[in-house]
Amino acid sequence: DFDHRPPKGSPPLKENNQQTDILVSKGRFNLDEDAREIYIINWKRLLVYDMDTGAFKRGWGGHGMPLSEITN
Predict the structure, then answer these.
(1) For an engineered disulfide with 17, which of 5, 23, 56, 70 has Cβ 3.0 to 4.6 Å away?
(2) Mean pLDDT throughout 43-54?
(3) Is a pLDDT exceeding 70 seen at residue 40?
């Protein structure tokens, strides 16, 4: 039964701005129907995913900073 909570006793997930396959906290999002992309603002970054496959496409932090340079 999935209720949007981790199993009891699971350690909390830590913020990792380089991680793109798990979104720990909720964020705001916007859809680009023409490009078939979803833009998600999460923590200190903006992530772009393919709307059809869910594959990560690209991302960046404030002022265009690469994800690899964002501090956790």
Answers:
(1) 70
(2) 91
(3) yes
Q: Which residues contact 61 (CB under 8 A, 6 or more apart)?
A: 17, 44, 45, 46, 67, 69, 70
Distance CA 32, CA 40 (A): 11
* H helix intervals, the chain: none
Residue range(s) defining the domain that contains residue 1? 1-17+24-72
Tokens of 7: 């199993």
pTM of the prediction? 0.72
- What is the token pair recorded at 33? 């129907």
Mean pLDDT (the chain) is: 83
The tally of domains found in the chain comes to 1
